[in-house]
Amino acid sequence: MKVVVQVKLVPTPVQAAALKHTLRTVNEAACWVSGVAFARGVPREYELRKHTYAELRETGLGAQVAQHVIKKVRDAYTSLHANLRAGNLGKKGSKRRIKVESKPIAFRPQAAQPYDDRCLSWQYDAQTVSIWTTAGRLKGVHFACSPNALKQLTTHRKGESDLVERDGMFYLIATCEVPEAETREPGGFIGVDLGIVNIATTSTGYRAAGRKLNRYRRRQLALRAKLQKKGTKSAKRLLAKQRRKESRRAKDINHRISKTIVTEAERTGRGISLEELTGIRERVRLRKPQRVALHSWAFAQLGEFIVYKARRAGVPVVFVDPAYSSQQCAECGHVDRLNRVSRAVFTCRGCGVVAHADRNASRVLARRGQGAWDAGRTSHVPATSPRS
Question: Which residue has the higher pLDDT, 280 or 220?
Answer without folding.
Answer: 220
